[in-house]
Amino acid sequence: MKSYKVVIFIFSVIAMLAVLCAFFPEEGVNVGKAHLGFCQIDEFLPKLGEAKDTLESSETPEELLARRIVELRNAEESQYLDYFTNSDARIEFPDNDFTLFDPFFAALDSAMVHPVRVVHYGDSQLEEDRISNNLRAALQERFGGNGIGMVPLIQNYPTLTSKQTRSSSPRRALIYGTRDFSVQQGRWGAIGQVARVETPMSFTYYPAKKLDTTSTQRYYQKVTLLTDTLRAPMTMKVNGVEGVCDTLHQPLRRISVELPALSEALTVNLSGAGDVFGVMYDGLAGVSLDNAAMRGNSGTSFTQMNAGQLADYFNNFNVKLIILQYGGNATPYLQGAKSRETYAAKLEKQMALLKSLAPDACFLFIGPSDMSTNVNGSMQTYPHLPAVIDILRSTSHKYGIAYWNLYQVMGGHNSMAKWVHSTPPLAGRDYIHFTHRGADRVGDFLSESLMLYYDYYKWRNKSLEEQVLDALGNRSTTNTSTAE
Amino acid sequence: MGEILKNIFLYDPQHPLLFTQFYFWAFFALVYAIFSLVKSKRLMRNAFLAFVSLFFYYKTSGIFLLILLFVTCSDFFIAKKIDKASKQRIKKAWLVTSVVIDLFLLCYFKYAYFFTDLLNQMLGLNFRVFDAFAWVGNTIGGTDRFHVDSIVLPVGISFFTFQVISYTADVYMGKIKPVQNILDFSFYVSFFPQLVAGPIVRASEFIPQLYKPFFLGRRQFGIAVFWILNGLAKKIILSDYIAVNFIDRVFENPLLFSGFENFAALFGYSLQVYADFSGYTDIAIGVAMLMGFYLPQNFNSPYKAPNTQNFWKRWHISLSRWLQTYLYIPLGGNRNTTFGTYFWIVLFAVIALILSGSIWALVAVLTVAAVTLLLARFKPDQRKKITANLNSFITMLLGGLWHGASCNFVIWGGLNGVGMIVYKFWKDLAWGWKLSLMLGLTLLLYILKTFVPAPVFSLFFVWVLILAVGTLVRFLFHLYRPDAPGAFSKGLDSIEARKALRTMDRKDRIIANLANAWAVLQTFAFITFTRLFFRCGSNLDPAEANEKAWETAKNMVAQIGGKWDISIIPDVCAAYWKVFALVALGMLIHWLPARFKRRYRINFALLPIPVIAVICVVVIFCLYQFVTAGFQPFIYFQF
Predict the structure, then answer these.
(1) Chain A neighbours among B 281-300 (CB < 8 Å)?
(2) Radius of gyration of chain A (CA)
(3) pLDDT tens for residues B171-180?
(4) Is B298 exposed, middle or buried (0-12, 13-18, 19+ CB in 10 A)?
(5) How many angstroms separate the CA atoms of B84 and B77, rounded?
(6) What angle do CA B356, B360, B361 make, to 5 degrees?
């Protein structure tokens, strides 16, 4: 065959495709259920206007985060407000009320006297204690505390902070999935999980290998088991020490053990029969943080939970900050404005309920990260994601809940693709979940952000104090009174 | 306008020229138009294609073009020296020099991290890699635009270094005369269709084509177009679509998915990795064929292999043959062991030590090797078999390492080596022995699984149980008909099998087909299992990549070997029906008889050219639907 014929062949195929491009409707054609689309000619023409875009995109996600950390650390004293109102990575407070977290910060300051709890509810993005463990480490390092907080009785996979082995696996029910039995009156406990203990069992907790020996999360001293009305008297022994059963509290019964010293590995022996909601591994004082990852959940299950139990948990365990990290699982289905409103309405009910059950706690909503879908053959941000974020932010603010825009923190539009393709990768090939490294970056950044607001709180108090002292004409005691 | 020219001619790491992108085909159309003008002047044709190929490489890899040029020059001149040298000793010295240079570059860019990591772990050091080339670049240029603290892997370096080694070795062995014109040689090294992902073309097969005038038969044209469309479909539908919508997400977080989903993803991955790799080489073959060049076949329906030995004659054939000629035979092949054999045994023993962190691993590897070698020494009748297996096992390990600088690839190669050796011993065993072995193994695993409840034992138990039942059935059938035909060692589409089948009656043919199907499934399952170790993260930090890949394998085994919730399977199938249907369809097409495939290929090739053109447009339109198909949202079935 003559080669010029091949040339004609190739160019005629390209020409036919060009004709198809030119005449195929941009919005595509529906054939039955199937939707057929084809590219448009202008997609192939060089886009001159994009030069600026490529310049910006030369910053890798790691560089972006590093720059944000620098900006954050520079935002001291007089520049606080500038950062709080302008940075893409800021925590957005309703009505720009930057004092919203003051009660939480005050509680942190006295955490060594009155232990403080934080609970981090969320979806699979937090699984394996991701993100939570960084925040926990930061808080414990600064304000004291030990342990990994509450974990379900049955931990099916090792996390970044702990590993469990157990003699048997009781049946379990999860508000967001598997239900081996039905749960009455929404008695799901604090993190939406119940394990039905019927026969004696034992389990051992080890800190994860990756935690170095200086990590506060490696050591536990107080173990508290949360359970319901017992069907047979339950006893718990931790490393041989017998637990004390607290029968006063009705919604959540506690069996707790205080060990004589901080311990690494714990062997827990349980006997009796009852529904167990979880076990807390804490220090005797300081900050504890519970990670409650609900795979596949969109944060709309709290109204199905027993309000009494939730209130007992929030108020009697001194939960001062409730973090809600949801939205990713709902996003693919929220293309239309109507569906977004329906989702927001559902979330409103949750927020209203949680606010009423935990009147003393501060709330932070972490919205969806950037997530990609196939847009004309390349993985790009879900086109409606910014609209989802807008409605989540305004709903949160309506209920006095601060909002942290993880999508913007990552770098905004199409940042997920960059996180996936950065070396080493910060997010997985599913374009949704962070890798361990990526989750570390997010967790550390969240901690730093929160601490910036804490520093601002300290600065405000300090300057207030200074003003008072100035007024009294007694500046000499400033140093001692504001020392941390 | 300057912007457009810049886009077209400058290297942009974000936009390499990929076969699945329109820009590649626009590039090819232009190249072909010019090619058709210069094709009759042989030297001009080769020079033009060499130039175009270098440009192509520059577009994909930027400054690494210099490395490609460097190996091209060094091997070109060394091969000439070898040819001119009269003494064997000098010839050998030049050959060694060339191989050392080529392997040094390959090791430096591909394995620097791997070996640094090994050294650090072994000696408790904390060395960092240092990119000397970047440093030199910075010093000469007086800039700091190259990063010295990371080494980036140049695209295709594994392929082109193997190609230049084959050239110099072929010249040394006198199989070919050295190429006289450096442009011709450069064309051989960097021919753009196969530059990035193979096939690895051997000098003795490709160099002669350099001197032939252009010729493209009418039927060949059709076949070339067929390979291109076939490759695009494989790559886009069977690889990218199912990867993005199912397989990647399971491999990313196996613990988020149920045992059944992990199981399905692993089998799906087996197809995906094949479709990805072979799709790419299909396109390369088609593109080269349009220009009148013939690249060797790289895949021959590998999952039709009835045993692990045959699998390697069908999977990445150009690599297997390269390793056979330039590694296995120099190691001593099936004749004897050489210095190389011992060297690699010790090296792999050290790697085993580092991987496991226990001195016992080193002792175990060395003991096994020593016992094997002693057996070979004192049992002369077995010597051939033993040395052959030892050398082929080492070849497999190195073949594994070639795929990627990570211990997981070594494990993968090792598993394939074990599979091959087990097969070689298994095929000569008597049926009674086979059955007893399988039953014994089943019992052992049953005991293990009962007393050491680990998912890996449950997984192996179920697997071995199925194999044992199969063996039992075949054993019983064998008692009833001792002369029943078995599976064909080279597969159903081999000439031997076809001849034998023709002489059989209908009943025997059914039996032979059944035996073959069983053997194929058995091999497919084994190969699929080895794929657990075939996936690896980024090559930048092997410590992390290793850990991630190992975690993934461990977690997948935990999920597959854990308790399955049978009730969710129908829901999983309903949710992922598109992906599952594509995998099933892909496997069915894969298993179609070779004769049937050849027939439809030829029928396609003989269609009138305008019809072929229209088919191209239709296929591209369909592929576009897959490229842009919506991303399947996450659904969880396990909590």
Answers:
(1) 290
(2) 26
(3) 888 888 888 8
(4) buried
(5) 11
(6) 45
Three-state secondary-structure class, residue A232: strand
Window 153-192 of B, Cβ < 8 Å to A = none
Cβ–Cβ under 8 Å, residues B564 and B258: yes
Whether residue A13 contacts residue B617, with contact meaning beta carbons closer than 8 Å, is answered with yes
| Residue type at A466 in one-letter notation | E
State whether residue B21 sits within 8 Å of chain A by CB.
no
| Cα gap B479→B220, rounded to integer Å | 51
Confidence of residue B119 (pLDDT cuts 50, 70, 90): low
What is the spatial distance between Cα A138 and Cα B340, in angstroms, rounded to a whole number? Answer: 53
Cα angle B136, B60, B282 (rounded to 5 degrees) comes to 140
B355 to A318, B399, B408, B531: CA distances (angstroms): 46, 18, 10, 19
Tokens representing B397 are 């390990």
CB atoms within 10 A of CB B382: 11
Cβ(B234)–Cβ(B278) under 8 Å?
Answer: yes
Residue B123 has what pLDDT?
63
**Beta strands, E only, A1-141:** 29-31, 34-36, 91-92, 116-122
For A3, which of B35, B538, B633 is closest by C-beta distance? B35
Question: Nearest to residue A364, comparing CAs of A78, A12, A17, A90?
Answer: A90
Residue with the two structure tokens 């808080």: A139
H/E run at residue A164: strand A162-166
Candidate from A17, A178, A295 with C-beta closest to B256: A295
* Cα B218 to Cα B364: distance, rounded to the nearest angstrom: 59
Rounded CA-CA distance A377/A44 in Å is 13
CB atoms within 10 A of CB B510: 12
Q: Where are the domains of chain A?
A: 3-43, 62-109+297-484, 146-285
Residue type, A232: A
Locate B626 and state its tokens.
């897959």
Residues of A in contact with B26 (CB under 8 A): 14
Burial grade of A359 (CB within 10 A; 0-12, 13-18, 19 or more)? exposed
User: Chain A residue with minimal CA distance to B3?
Assistant: A48
Question: What CATH architecture does domain A62-109+297-484 belong to?
Answer: 3-Layer(aba) Sandwich (3.40)
Q: Element (H or E) spanning A122, and its range?
A: strand A116-122
Q: Do A433 and B252 touch (CB under 8 A)?
A: yes
B631 and A379: CB-CB below 8 Å?
yes
Is residue B440 a contact partner of residue B467, using CB atoms and an 8 Å limit? no
Q: Which residues does chain A have within 8 Å of residue B537's beta carbon, measured at their own beta carbons? A: 424-425
Is the complex ipTM more than 0.95?
Answer: no
Q: If you ran DSSP here, which 8-state letter would residue A217 be given?
A: G
* Residue B192, pLDDT score: 84
Q: Which helix (H) or strand (E) holds B271?
A: helix B259-290
**Which of A12, A295, A374 lies at the smallest CB-CB distance from B636?**
A295
| Euclidean distance between CA atoms B314 and A96, whole angstroms | 66
Domain edges within chain B: 2-214, 216-306+560-639
CATH code: domain A146-285 is 2.60.120.1360
Distance separating alpha carbons of residues B214 and B211, to the nearest angstrom: 9
Both tokens of A165, joined, read 């082995």
- What's the pLDDT at A481? 44
Q: How many residues does chain A have?
A: 484
pLDDT in the model for residue A400: 93
CA-nearest residue of chain A to B28? Answer: A10
**Phi then psi dihedrals of residue A193, to 5 deg:** -135, 140
pTM confidence score: 0.83
pLDDT band at A57 (very low <50, low <70, confident <90, very high): low
Residues B236, A374 contacting (CB under 8 angstroms): no
| Residue matched to tokens 């996979």 | A157
Nearest to B168 by CA among B74, B265, B281: B74
- Alpha carbons A333 and A385: distance in angstroms, whole number: 10
